[in-house]
Amino acid sequence: MAKILIENREYEVEDGQNLLQACLSHGFNIPYFCWHPAMHSAGACRQCAVKVFKDENDTRGRIVMSCVMPVAKGMRVSIDDPEAKAFRENVIEWLMSNHPHDCPVCDEGGECHLQDMTQMTGHVYRRFRFKKRTYKNQYLGPLVNHEMNRCIQCYRCVRFYRGYAGGRDLDAFASRNRVYFGRSEDGVLESPFSGNLVEVCPTGVFTDKTLKSHFARKWDLQTAPSVCVHCGVGCNIIPGERYGELRRVSNRYNGEVNGYFLCDRGRFGYEFVNSPQRVKEALLKTADGVQEVSKEEALRLASHMIGMGGKVMAVGSPRATVETNFALRTLAGAENFYSGFSRHEARLASLIVEVMEKGPARSPSLKEVRSADAVLVLGEDVTNTAPILALALRQAAKNGPLKTAMKLGIPFWDDMAIKTATQGKKGPFYAAAPYATDDDDAAVKTFHGPPVEIARFAAAIARELNPSLPIVDGHSEETASLAREVAQALLEAERPLVVSGTGSGSEAVIQAAANVAWALCARGKKAGLTMVMPECDSLGAALIDSKGLDEAFAAAAEGEFDTLVIAENDIFRRMETEDAENFLASFSHVIVIDHVINDTVKAAHITLPGASFAESTGTLINFEGRAQKFFQVFVSAGAQQASWRWLKDMMDSTGLKLQKWESLDDVTSDAAAVIPAFEKITRAAPKHGFRIAGQKIPRQTHRRSGRTAVEADKTVYESKPTEDEDTPFSFSMEGFQGQPPSPLIARFWAPGWNSVQSVTKYQEYAGGPLRGGDPGLRLIEPKVAGAPFFKAVPISFKARKYGWLLVPMPRLFGSEELSVFSPPLASLQAKPFIGIAEEDAERLEVEEGDEIAVRANGKSFGLPAIFVPGLTRGVAAVPLLPGMAMLTLPAWGVLTRAKRRAA
Amino acid sequence: MLSHEEKIEIEEELKGAPFKRAASIDALKVVQRHRGWVDDQGLKDVAVMLEMTPSELDSVATFYNLIFRRPVGSHVILVCNTITCWMMGCDSLLKRLTERLGVPLGATSADGGFTLLPVPCLGACDQSPVMMVDGKLYGGLTPEKVDEVLKEHGWKG
Amino acid sequence: MEGLNEKPLTALMRPDKAALSLAEYERAGGYQALRKALKLAPVEIQRVVKESNLRGRGGAGFNTGMKWSFVPMDSDGTKYLIANADEMEPGTFKDRMLLEGNPHQLIEGMIISAFAIVATEAYIFLRWEYALASERMSKALSEARAKGYLGRDIFSSGFSLDIKLHVSAGRYICGEETALLNALEGRRAVPRAKPPFPQVSGLWGRPTVVNNVETLSNVPHIIANGDEWYRGLSRSKDGGTKIYGVSGKVKRPGLWELPMGTTIGEILEEHAGGMREGLKLRCLIPGGASTEFLTEEHYSVKMDFDSVMEAGSRMGTGTMIAVDDKTCPVGVLRNLEQFFAQESCGWCTPCREGLPWVEKTLSAIEEGRAKPGDLEVLEMHGTSLWIGRTYCALAPGAMEPLRSGLKLFRSDFERHIKEKGCPYKAH
Ligand SMILES: Cc1cc2nc3c(=O)[nH]c(=O)nc-3n(C[C@H](O)[C@H](O)[C@H](O)COP(=O)(O)O)c2cc1C
Ligand code: SF4
Ligand code: FES
């Protein structure tokens, strides 16, 4: 800590910090563009000028760019200095000289950082009287819109896209005042993080195309703090609704999780909520087909089915909330409740729970991941299963080189100097996967092999670290030396991290990964162990119960069950079709609660419209073990309600198991009382009774327009806002307008700061945690001592003469259940294919694109072949894409050439 | 497709480069030497050789004044229009050139013979006004001498 | 040779302007300094060069030996020396002569300088338009390599060096030393953050020294004759001779190697022969386009870094542009600012957006489309595009002539505005 003087008052600042960050942290307003708290300083825009004085006697001072000025003890700083102010006004004047005057129709309107900064500097009158420059726009795909005339050349987009996220198809072109940001030609942006351009760009060059397709003014959006449901990372989001439709999702800063960024699946997957496939009313299947019935009628029928006396089985879901799964468990009894995992998923999930609960390695937050200085990824295609984790790993990969830059005296925030000094060098980041993944380019070295070989490779590393572990023989010298290298790198690191998960479908890989992390712990390292799980509540579901659907099937086959209740689970994605059909057929009644029409819904006798994340409140547990609460954003026009509430209503009307559940909090509390792992879960966020100065927190902004007119087509009266019994939020603009506790931040806004940049005003210091700590509560902490090593080492892979090992290949777009209903994402999905090694083409007598007949698990189907780099011969990669048959992978199968395409 | 010669020359440039991308400007110049300019396909092909994406390479290509990303004529005339040459009458040279070629500054004559471009100070201010045709410098020019230079380069007017 | 004692850089050059071959250069004593240098300790060479008071001829005038001394001498791994032969500063044409006339002098200077900082790789960064220089330089490099003056274990000293020739693709900003490094790395030539300075983190992140061609060409002579001799060549505090040049409507535009500190008047009147018949000197730009105007009043000012600075300008590259009284000063400024606006790299706001505004405003004034407030706009740029406010020195350089021009030619500006056009156009 150093003391500096700002406007002649003393402030404590972090040593070595830059002056801009220091001043912002103390609440001062300094305009800036190119600086970004995650990407740090570039010194390009020259907007952040202040005056510094050397010492007491210096009366003249000098203008410096605060973002590239290290703070120094005793430094005197003036932001208000007339010369500095005049210069900052000049900078805005320059930036505005070519900026179009299209604010009224600009997509950025209402949250434009350029507008905020223009106001902040006081620039009002236009002196530039010459023609403005103009540019052509590009088509960048269905997600991001391009409007180059609005560009102020702050270089943030390329610094994010390339420097931070590793994308290579967006760049700066030309020079002088013709600098252009885009692609070399029109085309879909390739980075899975492209959507962040929307928030990184301080003006309206890159905007959200999905919002554009149903635009609403930013201040008219009704918002609440929410959590992304499209993978197991649990990024914090702010969904915005207007007129009963979800209009967009933007980032909700959580320093421990996603920080400033989201992936494109998470940002644009929300459109499933608006999908025509949504279940909006209760549906009853009769001999005449499916018909809509009233909520009351549906409930009466459902309760009747449940209350008839027969046994009830309940199937929950890794994508349902803790509360929903717990309500199901309550309804059917613990012994008759299944979390809804497939057999295979259940095995992997319970193994992960075991590893997390019994082992000494800590599952780090993503913030900790970003600060890891050596990383080993085992078997996980991270970009496709947990994209924001992949983004965090990319940052970790830079930490090694960063150390060398810092030895030259370069501060960590001096982005340009660091780039020069490190020259894109990679730190100790090793990636092992069955095929070449999107993460490979960040790695110093990669290892490709089928899951067992990855497990054996990891076992060799573990053995290097701990000689009491079994020897792995049969490795080539190359693999053995790589194992030594990795072990060494992990040992030399201060914060080594091992990443694995369910992605490769292999228990052996998970065990071996745990062994490596534990061996590091045993050597006195504070090793992290991240276990990726694919769905938003995979870990939560596993903590309640991890019997698989196979066991449910077996139990149902005993024939004692009458009714099956399924919530938020398309079992056809987890069981083979025939099994699923037989399973459902063993019940007289099937009741399904879900959001969208899927195969399970189609098979249900009664379907109850489940509320999506945007229409309900609940708790999810991400793969870190962090319980996070998301809050209802809006009240939908249909009959949708939270699944747990349907269950409560059913239980209430049967009268059988009367629950004293008044609100969601009661369910959460019950879950906490019953399930030991959930003991602390109620503390994840304030309860529904929480008030600030006696007031609720409004979901609507104080600038919201049309309040008395939104329903004018139906009634001239202004209807009373819907009461919310589950949360401290109101569905109105009344209430506490200040800053709520971090889990309850419904939007970021501060006087003068309408853009996302206002988040700084909510942080303890600029770029730091939200005041009072970032949201979420960790449920699982590692055991202090002992490492229950797994002892088995799998035998090595042998390619078979006729058989092929099929391994799973998760895809960012298409492999997750809900986002596939988002039309823009659906348009980006790959068509079904099977991946083979190019070297195997000859063996199969195929060329790329030719159809291959695949036989596995007793099924056969045809798929076009695609060459996947890195695949071992004799191994084929099967993506999980809509329209493809469910397969439990890895599995052995047979591939043969189907009829060759017409030449 | 890069020609055999282009490939060999680019490979030669790559040999001397500590990292592939370091040869990007030289490699683009190879293509330009052969084709007069760098067309989109040429750019993509070079990018592959350098293990760069087309965007990355074009980002570099478009930065420099003398990498032409648009077609030029068989002869490129660079007329210095910076301070000394301006004082010494480069405007009269330019007037003559645009008249003779029938196109404004920055354009290529209709027959594709000559492209007329301005260039910043050629570092030959003691011989002002100067211009450069296909890499050859001409100093002490007058409108009359411009005609001679044009003829030397095959202008038939 | 006699002349060598007064004009070390140019005395050997052939009257027919052909390049000095390796044989000719050696016959006149070339590469003897290198033999001597390789027997000295690198830091000793640094010391001699520092004492000689050789100041960088690229324009900034930083003491060369001092610059070298910031290179870490204990660091292992590659270090680089780069000769800056980008010479695109308008009105500057001195390095061209050195490159074309005596390429081996530069090569010898580079080997000695590289040895002084223990750099094992070197580049000559040459502008594309210097085609003749490129040809001659390539040939000279081959000669030197063939003789073993470049390559492994030079003169059995254990020191190895190769020099590569990089021909630029053209942009003024490439001459800025850090932008130059980016260009050499095959990137957009945008300047880099300083600190860290290239001496610590330069080409490919390694310690690097960038020196001007003229600077490096001086080094063999300093080593051969000692620092005291070198200081003695000068008529001022800065050591050595300087290649001065004059362009514009003077009787004999050209270049002359003269003692450092020769006065402006002497250069202009005696060497360049004064203005052409019927013309008077309106003003002069002393050292390339990015220096402030001086006038006849300054004839007695010595052309050395400090003296010109005291007179309110900079010596810069030492090549003057003489502006006659029939040339419109607003037109001069407009031409200069057009150059700078065109050559801005586009990285920082003030330069990228400010310079085109300046250019457009000057054009408007020149063409009779001035509006009230135009002069204030120009003045605002003069203050705001200043050192420390922009990312590199390009924009402040562009403001030097503008700032002084606004003061010096105020009445001309006002006439343009009042008469709605250029009063000199009639002539
Ligand atoms: C915009 C700009 C252009 C420059 N162009 C050149 C140039 O063409 N040649 C040169 O030697 N120095 C040029 N310089 C100066 C270099 O940055 C650097 O100071 C010089 O090469 C150092 O050499 P010296 O110490 O030997 O003078 C330029 C500087 C700027 C800001
Ligand atoms: S002043 Fe700024 S924009 Fe201009 S050349 Fe330097 S860095 Fe580039
Ligand atoms: S924020 Fe400091 S220069 Fe851009």
What this model shows, in words?
- The complex is a heterotrimer of chains A (about 900), B (about 160) and C (about 425).
- Chain A is of the alpha/beta class and about 900 residues long.
- Helices cover about 25% and strands about 20% of the residues of chain A.
- A seven-stranded mixed β-sheet of chain A has the order 15-14-25-24-23-16-17, with helices on both faces.
- Chain A folds into six domains: about 100 residues, Ubiquitin-like (UB roll) (Roll), CATH 3.10.20.740; about 80 residues, Alpha-Beta Plaits; about 150 residues, no CATH class; about 200 residues, 3-Layer(aba) Sandwich (Rossmann fold), CATH 3.40.50; about 160 residues, Dimethylsulfoxide Reductase, domain 2 (3-Layer(aba) Sandwich), CATH 3.40.228; about 90 residues, Barwin-like endoglucanases (Beta Barrel).
- In chain A, strand 11 and strand 12 form a beta hairpin.
- Chain A starts with a strand and ends in a 6-residue tail after the last strand.
- Helix content of chain B is about 45%, strand content about 10%.
- In chain B, helix 1 packs antiparallel against helix 2.
- The N and C termini of chain B lie far apart (about 35 Å).
- Chain C folds into three domains: about 230 residues, NADH-ubiquinone oxidoreductase 51kDa subunit (Rossmann fold), CATH 3.40.50; about 80 residues, Ubiquitin-like (UB roll); about 90 residues, NADH-ubiquinone oxidoreductase 51kDa subunit, iron-sulphur binding domain (de novo design (two linked rop proteins), Up-down Bundle), CATH 1.20.1440.230.
- Chain C is about 40% helix and about 10% strand.
- Chain C has 16 helices and eight strands.
- In chain C, the strands form two sheets. A four-stranded parallel β-sheet of chain C has the order 3-2-1-4, sandwiched between helices. Chain C has a four-stranded mixed β-sheet with strand order 6-5-8-7, covered by helices on one side.
- Chains in contact: A-B, A-C, B-C.
- Iron/sulfur cluster (SF4) binds next to helix 13 and helix 15 of chain C.
Shape of chain A: globular
Note the beta-strand portion of chain A.
Answer: 15-25%
Major sheet: arrangement of strands of chain A: 15-14-25-24-23-16-17
Oligomer: heterotrimer
CATH secondary-structure class of the largest domain in chain A: Alpha Beta
Rounded average pLDDT of chain A: 95
The CATH top-level class label of the largest domain in chain C = Alpha Beta
For the record, the count of structural domains of chain C works out to 3
Question: Span between N and C termini of chain A?
Answer: 72 Å
CATH topology grouping of the largest domain in chain C: Rossmann fold
User: Approximately how much helix is present in the residues of chain A?
Assistant: 25-40%
